[in-house]
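From the pipeline queue, job 12 of 40. The input is one protein chain; the requested action is below.

Action: predict structure.
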Amino acid sequence: MPSKKSAANVALGEAARAMRAERGLPQESFARHAGLDRSYYGAIERGEFNITLDTIMKIAAGLRVPAWKLLEASENSSRCPAKSRGRA
């Protein structure tokens, strides 16, 4: 069972979803391309998992962006906890 959603996980998931959607990639085919299970990737986009750096790297590679771009996009999300505390 997935753990409780954190604001940071939700922000990262929203950033991944937005970047995937900008590229016109369906979730299922993107997950397969990135080497992730479709249902696991869907849960990541919903912020249901605290993912590893390895998984962040797989998602970034699938999006063809450096990992820092994905993390930067998540920091710019309104759900990012650092942003709500004025640190982003």
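Job complete. The first helix runs from residue 7 to 22.
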